Amino acid sequence: MTISTFRIEAGRTRRLGAALAAAARPVLLAALLATGLALPAAAQPAQGCTNRGELDERYCDANRDLLADTPTERNRHKDPATLVFSFTPVEDPAVYEGAFADFLVHLAKVTGKKVRWYAAESYATQVEAMRSGRLHIAGVASGATPYAVNLGGFVPQVAMQKNDGTTGYTLQLITRADSPVKSLADLKGRRVAHVAPSSNSGDTAPRVLFAGLGVVADRDYTVLYSGKHDNSIMGVLNGDYDAAPVASNVVVLMRDRGLFKPDALRVVYESRPFPGAAFGVAHDLTPALQAKILEAFLGYPFAGSSLAREFKEYRGFVPIGYERDWADIRAIQKASGATYTHESLGKLER
Predict the structure, then answer these.
(1) What is the number of domains present in the chain?
(2) What is the DSSP annotation of 53-67?
(3) Domain range for residue 304?
(4) Tell me, what DSSP letter sits at residue 128?
(5) What pTM, to 2 d.p., does this model score?
(6) Do residue 256 and residue 332 come from a single domain?
(7) Boundary (domain end) residue, out of 237, 271, 305
(8) 3-class SS of residue 91
(9) N or C: which end of the chain has fewer CB within 10 A?
C-alpha cells in the first residue's frame, strides 16, 4: 500500500526519537577506525563565523541556507588541475565507472580540467574524502547527503530527473511474491534485511515510519544488515530474508538488468518520494569552478549517453535545493537519534 504522507510532526518526532534513539545511537570512534579510515588532521575553525548551525566547526553558514559557505578568503579557494569525481556506493562502484564515462569526458571539456574517477567503498569513505580535500565532485546517496553537507562541506547542486519529471525514489518494503508477508504487521517475528545504519530507505526511514505505524525494528522483527541494497534484494529473492526495505530506484535498475523477473517480488509498503542522490561540489572550490561544474551538469547531453543506457528511466540533471528537498530526511534522521558529528561518521559504513 502507498502511504500518502510521512512528514514527522514535532511532537511525534520527539516521541519517536526517544523510542528509537537506543537503536540508532551513533557508534563509538572505534567503529570509525574499523572502516579503515584515517582521522583527518585537525582543522582550524572558521574564523569570525556569525552562524554555523549543525555544520562542523571548520565551516560557516552566514547566509543560513544550511550549507557551508565558500570561504571569503581567496587564499582558501581551491582550483585543482585534476578534479576527482565519485558516485555513491549503493552497489559495486565498478558498475558505475563505465556508466559515468561520457559525463566525465564532458566535465573535463567544460571545466578545462583533467577528471579522475574515485571508487568510494562506503558512504563514510566518500564523506571523508571530501572532508579531507581529496574529492571535489560527488553524487551522494540521499541519506548520506546531510552527513556530507555537515561533515564534508558538500554543496548539492543537481539531481537526476526521471522521464516523468520527478527526481526522487520511494522506500519499498519488498518480499517474495509467494511470501506470507502481506502487511507491515506480518513482519512480527521475522528476519528483515536492513541495508546499513544511516541508509535512508534501507534503515533510518523504515525505523521511523514503521514505528509510527506500530511496528518497531529490533523489537517486533529481527534486523539483519545486508550491507547493500542489491544484497537485500537478492537475499529476499533467495529466501535469506523474509522482507527488506530498499530504495525503489535500485529495484528498477536491477530488474532492468534482468537480475530477476518483474513478478518475482511484491511490494508490501511504499512511502511517498524522497529526493534522489545529490550531485554537487566541495564548498571551497573557486566560485568560477563551481559555476563551471554546474554548467557541465545542466548542459550534459543525456540522451544516448552511457548514463542514459544505465539509468533508463532518467533524462538529465536539474537543480535542487538542499534546505527544502532534504527537510523530511533530516526530520527522520533526527527522530532516529542521528547527530552530524565525526564520531557518527562510522555509521555510514555501507
Answers:
(1) 2
(2) TTS-TT---TT-SSS
(3) 29-166+275-348
(4) H
(5) 0.74
(6) no
(7) 271
(8) coil
(9) N
